[in-house]
Every structure is written in C-alpha cells, then in structure tokens.
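Supplementary notes for students who missed Thursday's class. We covered one full example, reproduced here. Read the sequence, then the structure, then the short commentary at the end.
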Amino acid sequence: MIIKHRYDFVFLFDVTNGNPNGDPDAGNSPRIDSETGHGLVSDVCLKRKVRDFVCLKKTDMQTGKPEAGFDIYVKHQGILEQFHRQAYEACGLKLDETANDKKMDNVVKARAWMCQTYYDIRTFGAVMSMKTGNCGQVRGPVQITFSKSFAPIASLGQSITRKAVTTQSDADKQIEKHGQITGTFGRKEIIPYALYQAHGFISSNLAADTGFTEKDLELLWEAFGNMFEHDRSASRGLMSARKLIVFKHDCHLGNAPAHKLFSLVKIKRNTEPARAFEHYDVIIDRANLPEGVSMEEKI
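Structure (token representation):
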C-alpha cells in the first residue's frame, strides 16, 4: 500500500577514529565546514549505504538475483544504458521510435517500469533522460540533508608505513639507496570522535507518483539502523547509528513545519572533550509535539 502520511526524521550517527566521508577536493580528508570547523557528511554518502544495505538484504546469495521490485539502479559497476534498454524491452517499446507522441508515451511507460523495478528510484528518484532509452525523470519522495557534526571536528593526520613495495624497480632503487627495502610512507586522517545529525523528509504526494509503499518505508528504517554494520572499512573507523527519531503527520500534507519538529530534538555535551556518544545528552521535547503529529524512536 502506498504511504498516506508525511514523515520527517532526525538521524544521529557517530564516528570514532575514522573518516566518515572523505572530500576528493581535499586529498580525501574529512569533509568540513571551513567557516565553523564542523564536520560534514554528504547526502549521497548516506544514500549509498541505504542502497548497499537493500541490495544485500534483497539479493539471493545463491543466484545473485534481487527480489522482484528491489533491484538497485545506481550500483557498483552498473551500466545505466543497459538498464534503460531492459525497460524498453520489458515494455515492448521501440528504442528508435521517431514519432514524437509515441516517444513521449514510451517514456511514460518506461519510467513506470523503472519505478516498479528499482527500489532506489522510487525512493530517492533519478534523472534517466538519455538519448537512447529515455526513461524521463523521477523526483523521489525521500530526501536527506547533508549531515553536520555537533561540535567542530579535530582531523588528525597519521603517518603510516607500508613494508612492501609496488615493483621490482622500486625495490632496486631502495636497496641501492638504503641497502635494504625500507617500505614507503603514507598519510591517513581520522576524527577521534564526532556525532553527526542528518534531517530527512518523506512526501506521500511524491510517493503516490513513484509507488513508494509502506513495505518500502519499513525497509528504509531498517537500512538506517543497519547500514553501518555492513559497510566496515579501516578508513571509516567505528561508525554507529545512534538514534532515528521519526515524526509522523496525520495527513499527507503535514500538520507542522519540519524545522519546528526538528527543534524539539536537542543535543548537549555533558563533558569536554566529547569522545563517546555517552558524552552527549539527547533531549526530546515530547510535551510540545504539535497536534496531529506523533513521534517514534526507530533506533
């Protein structure tokens, strides 16, 4: 069943001794607001982890095939043009249609098939306007903001060494210079600790257009709770989902502005410096929930 309510949510997660989201324009150092020093994590980063969790949960490990309706459009080594061709073939449409009215009709049918087939398209939306196999554009019902840390982050550069060398010529050069293979040096940047907050919005109006269902919504909540558990790497350190606070409106248009709901969640440090989630107090003002809005902690 298509969702009938508007939702807004607050997602809290943290990192210990890791880099949650490197900035390619800054040598892959942790993303940072240069004016305030607060850490940032992009919305794309979180969406990637949601996609990966859904792919992991909904793919048959024996056959490698996803459950019907839960394939992922933007995935590792995915070739989007091939997916578009599959849509046209599945709908019995001509890729080389010349009549303009037929072209537009084909786009509508292919777009509907893509929404039905790919979880991330009906959730986050996608731009699928290609010269060959045009499937139009989809505005997704689920949108996520950039995450921001509650305090300025301290990005610590760490020197690391590699005892092996890449090529024989590199080994020969080191032996000639040092008399032995000494290895190579590198750098790694980590954040000792940071607690991040992201805001999210779910529109039932857009859900009706993409076919986003209650089942899809429950899978989304599950992904937020578990996505870090299946995305471990040495560079990201220890990342953990801490709280997912969901505001549910009684109607599809909503009963209160999102920013007023978000202001009901307050975070305060109870010690300096903060080096663990327990060093923060999360205070939720349940008494001032607007009429027509309910709140639930999913994590």
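Commentary. The chain has two domains: 7-152+189-297, 156-188. The two ends are 24 Å apart (CA to CA). If anything here is unclear, bring it to office hours.
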